[in-house]
Amino acid sequence: MTLRDLPDDADATGFADISQVLNSAHLSALGDDQSGRARLLATAVELVAAHGPASLRVTEVAERAGVSIGLIAHHFGGRQGLVAEAQVVLFEGALSEDINALETLLEISQDRAFLLEGFRKITARLLDPKRIPVRAMRLSALGSSHGTAELRERLRHSTTRILDRFEAFAARLQDAGILRQDRDPRAIATFVQAYGLGMVIADLDLNPSPVDSMVEVVDGLLESILAHEP
Q1: Residue 10: exposed, middle, or buried by beta-carbon count in 10 A (0-12, 13-18, 19+)?
Q2: Rounded mean pLDDT of 81-90?
Q3: C-alpha to C-alpha distance for 129 and 124, rounded to whole angstroms
Q4: Three-state secondary-structure class, residue 119
Q5: For 61-80, what is each residue's pLDDT tens digit?
Q6: Entry pTM
Q7: What is the DSSP letter of 54?
Q8: pLDDT in tens, 93-115
Q9: Which architecture characterizes domain 15-223 according to CATH?
Q10: Domain boundaries defined on the chain
Q11: Please, are residues 203 and 136 in contact by the beta-carbon 8 Å criterion?
């Protein structure tokens, strides 16, 4: 059995498109919390994802969330704080699910070959054109942060949390003898994040390489940090 035989569900292979990511981010913002703050944030996440941060109107957010508009200032300090937090939820949500998929893969892997095949499948998902809106949302958040110190600081904390999780995952792979021990797991985590976000270049290319070709390149880079089989 290989990972290609597994069903294409979010638990095993990560998110395929923006609808799944938005649903996860929306639920993450709301969670089990039915407070006015949680409803405001979940509503803002949905609106920012659909129309962008510039078009968000606090009156519409409050109306859809069913709460007083005054709660926006109370919980977020105003429109700017609400938009910033919604962008961070969207920035982090998709990546959290990607990490969950990787961790699930490690748990269900039968052997080294099974694990590596799973990596290739997840890589193909990450590079799939359906992920273009996901990368666009992340890039939008990063672009907005250059003019907003509050958002930039929030994204710094968010990025650090993401890299912490990826670093821990890379360290687990090193302990399992999958990755080379002489490579810094934090550097590995940073590189993985960098190439994922860097695919915005392919998204803008009028003549992009096929996904399979990109997967082959990523596979080749992966080979350079894999530990040799005993």
Answers
A1: middle
A2: 90
A3: 10
A4: helix
A5: 999 999 999 999 999 999 99
A6: 0.76
A7: G
A8: 767 778 888 888 888 887 888 88
A9: Orthogonal Bundle (1.10)
A10: 15-223
A11: yes
